[in-house]
Amino acid sequence: MTEQQLPAWADPSVPPAVLDAQGVSRRGLLRRAGLFGAAFALGGAATPAVAATGRGHGGEDPRLAYLVGDHHVHSVYSHDAKYTFSQQARAAARYGLDWMVFNEHSNFGHASYGAALEHQEILRARAANPRQLIFQGLEWYIPAAEHCTVFAAPGPHEVDLLTRFELAYDGKLLGYTEGAAGAADTARNEAHAVKAVEWLAEQRRSGYVDDVLVLANHPLRLGIDSPHEMRAWRDAAPEIMIGMEGAPGAQGAAIPGWRGATSIRGEYENKPSAQSWAGYPADAYLTYGGFDWATATVGGLWDSMLAEGRLFSVTTNSDNHRTVFDTWKNGDWPAGQNFDNTGRLPDPVNTDTPQAGSDFWPGQFSRTHVGVTRYGYRAVMTGLREGRVWLDHGHLLDGLEVRLRREHSNGRGVTLGGRLRVRKGEKLTLEITVTTASRPNPQGILPQLAHVDVIRGAVRGAVSDRDTWRAPDTKVVRTTDVSGRKGTYTLRVPVTVGDESCYLRLRGSDGNRNGTGYLGASVDPHGPIPHEPGNGDPWADTWFYANPIFVDVVG
User: Fold this and answer.
1) What are 60-74's pLDDT values in tens digits?
2) Residue 555: is its pLDDT beyond 80?
């Protein structure tokens, strides 16, 4: 593989004068973390000793830099997409992505032809874009359920792993799509999905691949990912099945006047079907501030999983197939060719006329930020596994650093995805360091953060009802108005440890659209709300979310 270069903003050989405002801001964040230059490239002396889990000595987390990425991008190797690798990679570079996953749809054309051809393009793309980390992935049709991102670390078996997995475990290829309650094949299909995750875990344990991760995509779009299925995937191999899309792609689907009067952000335009889990309310099929109901509902499905005391991460991404207002159309097939016998679409053709689409380019609107101690493929995967993740829409923030530490402690404490062991009655401080947006976003808007919400939930352990989606002891406990604040500032929130373990997570927005949360004002007085059908300008309703920090009470 071609030698990897640092991103321009992280490379000391690149003069600051050639960086844009956001690059300068990110360089400042990197310097503050003590990871600039060789320390970031090699994990050198500025990085504290890190155990195999990625956690630092003494129960504290290392200093981190955050890499921006997207784990759900499609190309001509997906049957319903449009763009070449070079088009996607150029767009990702233009919008500041450090890493991306080409996540092509599973089907026989892909398994038989496309995956191997794609791998050759992946290798060329890595060589042509040495400042980007480019993963090869697969969008897996989960037996009895929705889709997942599956991707491996670069290595000699990365494409073989994906192809073997696709042929042995893909629900669409096997005909294992039935998931209706009580249907004859549902139990078999659900069990096969669990076997799939276990198989991936074994490939990692055996060393066949260095690493592999799975994330559930658009989980509530069709309502067919039931709570018990999501728990079963997680429990099968929590080091592999690490989370879900907190917000789907297709965020441009409801731009006013674009796709029609019934359009919804994320293309969440479905109704319950026979395949849907009956326990979801009709409102679960909508997005809230662009986020999936499972994530956006304080005290909802995501919180019910966190309340078990187990990490389950959220991400966001473009799911880019067809970019809004883009003028390219799919090319025409040569005689006798189709996707099934080639595994690849013809290259697109520019028409100079806007074409149908719901998506933004990778990094244009949705960004997943992953905390790492060095630059590289495995570092990104470790950061994702450890849960060092926050996400934003519309380039709402330049930076977010979160630490939970004992009161009056000089240590670094723990950060997103981490755990702090404490005793009942201890006093803690949650430190939230925000770096505000330093430049207009791709829409020409200078984003302004209006508020930061702290959400706290009790940890009660494993649930008796694996289909529960409620966490009744989770609620917003503090809201800080930060309107008008600029630059980098730190909010310090006192936290008192009670009788039982808990977790803390963060959320915030531009303040343009909020109202009573789904489970009531006593739980969430000013949460994200659905937009009117056909009237969902994503740039006018942007949010950030951060993964939890767990507080384990030990006595």
Assistant:
1) 789 999 999 999 999
2) no
3-state secondary structure of 227: helix
Tell me the pairing of strands 419-422 and 549-553: parallel
Q: Residue 478 is which amino acid?
A: R
Residue 491, strand partner residues: 432
Q: Report the pLDDT value the prediction gives residue 112, as an integer from 0 to 100.
A: 95
Q: What b-and-e string marks burial along 257-283, b requiring 16 or more CB atoms within 10 Å of the CB?
A: ebbeeebbbbbbbeebeebbbeebeee
Question: In a 3-state reduction of DSSP, which class is residue 246?
Answer: strand
414-470, pLDDT tens digit by residue? 999 999 999 999 999 999 999 999 999 999 999 999 999 999 999 999 999 999 999
234/368 Cα distance (integer angstroms): 20
Is the CB of residue 152 less than 8 Å from the CB of residue 161? yes
CA-closest candidate to residue 111, choices 343, 338, 267, 385: 343
Q: Is 4 exposed, middle or buried (0-12, 13-18, 19+ CB in 10 A)?
A: middle
Length of the chain: 555
Identify which of 394, 17, 328, 306 has the alpha carbon closest to the alpha carbon of residue 9. Answer: 17
Residue 409 has what pLDDT?
Answer: 84
349: Cβ contacts below 8 Å, ≥ 6 apart:
328, 329, 330, 331
pLDDT tens digits along 202-228: 999 999 999 999 999 999 999 999 999
The span from the CA of 386 to the CA of 414, in Å, is 12
Residue 33, C-beta contacts closer than 8 angstroms, at least 6 positions apart? 63, 64, 65
**Which residues make beta-bridge pairs with 64?**
none
Could you tell me if 109 and 339 are in contact, meaning their C-beta atoms sit under 8 angstroms apart? yes
Q: What is the DSSP letter of 275?
A: T
Provide the percentage of residues in the chain whose pLDDT is more than 90. Answer: 94
User: What per-residue confidence (pLDDT) applies to 44?
Assistant: 46
Task: Output the pLDDT for position 26.
Answer: 96
| DSSP assignment of 130-169 | TTSEEEEEEEEE-TTS-EEEEEE-SSTTHHHHHHHHHHHH
Q: Hey, what are 440's tokens?
A: 């207009």
Round to whole Å and give the CA distance between 467 and 277: 10
What pTM, to 2 d.p., does this model score?
Answer: 0.97
Q: Does an H or E element contain 117, and which?
A: helix 115-128
Closest Cα to residue 519, out of 351, 321, 281?
281
User: Tokens 């050198």 label which residue?
Assistant: 44
Q: What is the spatial distance between Cα 181 and Cα 186, in angstroms, rounded to a whole number?
A: 7
Q: In this structure, is the dihedral angle defined by the CA atoms of residues 40, 43, 48 and 51, taken in order, positive or negative? A: positive
At 154, the amino acid letter reads P
- CA 135/CA 73 separation, integer angstroms: 10
